[in-house]
Amino acid sequence: QALARALITTENDEKLRRNKKFIDLLMQLEGCENRIIMAKRNYNNACKRCNRTDLVFGLEPVDAAAEVKF
Predict the structure, then answer these.
(1) Do 22 and 48 touch, CB atoms closer than 8 A?
(2) CB-hemisphere CA count at 13 Å for 6?
(3) So what's the pLDDT on residue 70?
(4) How far are the Cα atoms of 7, 29, 62 from residue 65, in angstroms, in the given order?
(5) Buried b vs exposed e over 35-65: b needs ≥16 C-beta within 10 Å?
(6) Per-residue pLDDT of the chain (70 residues; tens, 9 = 90+)
């Protein structure tokens, strides 16, 4: 999202398109966004595997409050 906004900004500004530091920043933003996308995908896949495991073994979600002992 940040990369898309930055690209829209650069369309109208010729100086920014030529600025090396700005181009480097865009590349870093793109890399960050890609890492975030991959992390979300990995997290979602891990959750799916965990949920399938619960279904296969018939485990019920544990209520954390019920486990607290006073």
Answers:
(1) no
(2) 15
(3) 44
(4) 48, 41, 9
(5) eeeeeeeeeeeeeeeeeeeeeeeeeeeeeee
(6) 677 777 777 776 777 777 888 888 888 988 999 999 999 999 999 888 887 765 555 555 555 455 545 4
Residue that has been written with the tokens 């002992």 in this structure: 69
pTM exceeding the 0.70 threshold for the entire prediction: no
Residue 49 is encoded by which pair of tokens?
């595997």
Distance CA 12, CA 63 (A): 55
- Location of structure tokens 């486990």: 67
